[in-house]
Amino acid sequence: MSVKRVRQVNWKEFNKRSDELLKEFQKTLLPDHADEVIAIEVENGGYVLGKTPTETAQKFWEQFPDKLMFLVRVDGGPVVKYPFKVKR
Q1: pTM for this predicted structure
Q2: In this structure, what are the phi and psi dihedrals at residue 26, rounded to the nearest 5 degrees?
Q3: CA atoms within 13 A on the CB side of 65
């Protein structure tokens, strides 16, 4: 039986790097790809584009197996919207 190691993630750094990479990619992808979904591989700066979150995630995992993904619309908007309110 093989055991996979779970690596520690500095989420503050991950979020910072994700935002930086998205801004850089937007310079060349906007406005033509604004409504597409981008999945960014934060460690090495690779990315894939797709029309839906599911399609984009599948492409990402084919190209970057076992990597963390930052998934967002190219224009920075959310990829999923929930039609209900959450009570806190």
Answers
A1: 0.83
A2: -60, -30
A3: 1
